[in-house]
Amino acid sequence: MNITLKNQVTLVTGGSRGIGAATVKLFASTEAKVVFNYLHAARQARELAAACGGRGRVLAVRANLARVADAQRLVKITVRTYGRLDVLVANAGIWNYPPLPIEKMTEQEWDEMMAINLKGVYGVIHHAVPQMIRQGGGRIIVVSSTAGQRGEAFHTHYAASKGGVISLVKGLSTELAPHQILVNCVAPGWIETDMARPVLKNRGMCRKAVSAIPLGRFGRPEEVAMPILFLASSMATYMTGEVVNINGGNVLCG
Ligand code: NAP
């Protein structure tokens, strides 16, 4: 049995680069209709949409998900363009580099992290759920992080935002189950994307990070996209409120 999302309408946030871009490509390859947002990476977004079949199949929309109004517009455009919304992947996020001690962390830095990584997830889910309820079901997959499970020193606002989305997912899985909306998380460890680039480029930091990963390497964006596709597919009809670990064995928790 092949995994397919044929005729399903999917919305992927932060689809212009990294894990989101790999998810857009993979979803499009299974014949899903895909809407994704970008914020700054307009060229990459345009090229990705064109490579995946263009407007009839894949649509790129500019949106700043720190603003709930943009999340609302993104959901509206999805439904207006392709008629429904079956799968939401809330992936867009930021990390901080260099590391930031709590006593140096400004209110603005805290607020920006929460606005994108936590409120940004609330915004798209808040506006997607009424459409999914009308349709009689749906799938929501949120991209958290190992940082949300075990914390991350000097990235504590990031870790707090990622722990927040895990709790959000658990609560929503129960709340939305009567509507047949399945809500799950993936929690990646180190993945080779622009976000992890500062660590990948620093030989000492990279060696230290890899030494803590039993599989002995960073993951690739496609290796996160595949479990996301699984959670979106008809192969995962009895899973909700789950956190799927994708970390090369780095953090072992249920
Ligand atoms: P990335 O390569 O830096 O890509 C981030 C994506 O999010 C981009 O498409 C970016 O859009 C979008 N984005 C950022 N701020 C946004 C905003 N305010 N509004 C809308 N879109 C915004 O990151 P990644 O590594 O693929 O990360 C994707 C997710 O995985 C994040 O939630 C991250 O926390 C999580 N994660 C990553 C790792 C890792 O090691 N890479 C590990 C654990 C979890 P533009 O480029 O167009 O601005």
Number of strand elements? 7
Q: CATH superfamily assignment? A: NAD(P)-binding Rossmann-like Domain
What is the strand arrangement across the widest sheet? 3-2-1-4-5-6-7
**Which kinds of small molecule does this entry bind, naming each only once?**
NADP nicotinamide-adenine-dinucleotide phosphate
Category by helix and strand content: alpha/beta
Instruction: State the distance separating the first and last CA atoms.
Output: 28 Å
Q: What proportion of the residues form beta strands (DSSP E)?
A: 5-15%
Shape: globular
Quote the average pLDDT.
97
Question: What this model shows, in words?
Answer:
The structure is a single chain. The protein has 254 residues and is of the alpha/beta class. The chain is 46% helix and 15% strand. It has a 7-stranded parallel beta sheet, with helices on both faces. Strand 4 (87-90), helix 4 (107-135) and strand 5 form a beta-alpha-beta unit. The longest helix has 29 residues, at 107-135. The chain binds NADP nicotinamide-adenine-dinucleotide phosphate (NAP). NADP nicotinamide-adenine-dinucleotide phosphate binds at residues 14-20, 37-41, 63-66, 91-95, 116, 143, 145, 188, 190-191, 193-196. NADP nicotinamide-adenine-dinucleotide phosphate binds next to helix 1 and strand 2.
